[in-house]
Write a structure and sequence with these properties.
Blueprint: E1 3-4, H1 17-22, E2 45-47, E3 54-56, H2 60-70, E4 82-86, E5 89-90, E6 96-99, E7 103-105, E8 110-112, E9 115-117, E10 120-123, E11 126-130, E12 138-140, E13 145-147, H3 149-157, E14 160-162, E15 165-166, H4 172-180, H5 182-191, E16 201-208, E17 211-216, E18 222-225, E19 231-233, E20 236-237
Parallel strand pairs: 1-5
Antiparallel strand pairs: 2-3, 4-6, 7-8, 9-10, 10-11, 11-12, 12-20, 13-19, 14-15, 16-17, 17-18
């Protein structure tokens, strides 16, 4: 990265507009003339001719900070959600930052992503769901375990994807869609820290008299089973 540097060749008394004003106003009050310090670091300053107060010169580091800030170099790009600075650096600061995965630059800092972002769904910077191309719903990052149908339906409806946005038990059609896109869904789950789909039977929400539809994610086979059977459960987010 480029680094802006400033060379200070000399400093005139123009840094104190009060001194110019003092030439036109008859006063011997040092503080009115801008001499407000009792001493200056390293003696770098001008002593009031009418007393013991000083007007101190700004240090090179302070001048550099002021110049960089004025040009918009105000971000250190450190902390949660930041990956690095971007572009030219001025005295260790940047005009904007590169954000870590799950975060985006909003013009004032790196903020966590929320909601649908292509094939992933974010909640406060964390991926909570994925979907394959063409799918209109997101698959949760992990199974809820294996259980009977009533528990499956209840736990999916209470599964919190993000900020009280709850899931549902997938329909028969949605489970078949997951099966048809299993390779891409599993790839996305793996990339974003999720648990791969189990090659076994999953409950659907589709019901028939006395039975419920069950889909085998390994081969797409389906059958009807009684509500007391035990099968795997994966919530989906159907509206976003």
């Amino acid at each position: 990265m480029n680094n802006i540097k400033f060379l200070f060749i000399g400093t005139s008394l123009s840094f104190l507009p009060q001194l110019t004003f003092a030439q036109c106003v008859a006063t011997q009050d040092c503080e009115t003339l801008g001499y407000t310090e009792t001493s200056c670091n390293g003696g770098k300053g001008v002593k009031c001719p009418f007393g013991n107060k000083w007007a101190c010169l700004t240090s090179e580091e302070e001048c550099l900070n002021l110049a960089c800030d004025k040009l918009g170099f105000i971000y250190t790009c450190n902390g949660i959600g930041y990956s690095s600075g971007s572009g030219t650096v001025c005295n260790g600061k940047y005009t904007y930052c590169s954000c870590a995965s799950g975060y985006e630059w909003n013009g004032n800092g790196c903020q966590p992503l929320n909601g649908a972002q292509g094939d992933v769904y974010y909640c406060n910077g964390t991926v909570v769901g994925v979907k394959a191309n063409g799918m209109d719903f997101y698959v949760a990052m992990k199974d809820l375990g294996d259980m009977n149908w009533n528990n499956a339906d209840s736990q999916c409806k209470n599964y919190n994807f993000c900020n009280n946005l709850t899931g549902i038990l997938p329909t028969e059609t949605q489970l078949l869609t997951i099966y048809n896109n299993k390779s891409q869904v599993n790839s996305l789950l793996s990339t974003h820290g999720g648990t791969l789909l189990t090659n076994d039977y999953y409950w659907s929400s589709t019901t028939y008299p006395g039975n419920h539809s069950i889909i085998n994610i390994s081969d797409g086979e389906w059958f009807y089973g009684g509500p007391n059977n035990i099968h795997y459960v994966r919530p989906v987010l159907a509206s976003y």
